[in-house]
């Protein structure tokens, strides 16, 4: 399991996940950049994602649908803020309807993923920031922490291909 730690900070309204991969940062970056690789790990194994759009540039938008074991679909969207290849990805992350339209009744999370390579190993840190404690607790109750751990756990196999 590549996940080293997760930390909930209710004062800072953040959830931080740190994972380590036995691969250079350029290779780890590809699992974010390439939508076909991204959909093989974004979401827990029982809820695979299908990216219908992935404009991985600053200002770009991504839309995806995660499909549960019973066929239930849950949509999501990203709005890229900063895309600095092999180093940093910053985005807004929210829920969407089946057509990819943002769901205003659900929280929007601000997230930053950073990659740091040392001796051929890459540490990826993802910090999700919430607008309120209620939003943090709502998404944790929905399984965000466990879902992110399970999702990150799929990256090692992808990197070995």
From TrEMBL:
It comes from the Bacteria. It comes from Herbiconiux flava. SUPFAM superfamilies: Bet v1-like. Belongs to the AHA1 family. This is Uncharacterized protein YndB with AHSA1/START domain. InterPro entries: ASHA1/2-like_C (IPR013538), START-like_dom_sf (IPR023393). Residues 22-159 form the Activator of Hsp90 ATPase homologue 1/2-like C-terminal domain.
């Amino acid at each position: 399991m590549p996940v080293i730690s997760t930390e909930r900070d209710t004062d800072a309204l953040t959830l931080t996940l740190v994972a380590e991969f036995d691969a250079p940062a350029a290779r780890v970056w590809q699992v974010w950049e390439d939508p076909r690789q991204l959909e093989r790990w974004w979401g827990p194994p029982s809820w695979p994602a299908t990216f219908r759009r992935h404009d991985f540039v600053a200002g770009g938008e991504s839309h995806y649908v995660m499909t549960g074991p019973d066929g239930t679909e849950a949509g999501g969207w990203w709005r890229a803020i900063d895309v600095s290849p092999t180093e940093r990805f910053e985005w807004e992350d929210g829920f969407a309807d089946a057509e990819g339209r943002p769901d205003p009744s659900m929280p929007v999370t601000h997230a930053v993923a950073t990659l740091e390579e040392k001796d051929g190993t890459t540490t990826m840190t993802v910090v999700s920031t919430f607008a309120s404690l209620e939003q943090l607790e709502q998404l944790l109750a929905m399984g965000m922490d466990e879902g992110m751990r399970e999702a990150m756990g799929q990256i090692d196999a992808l990197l070995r291909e």
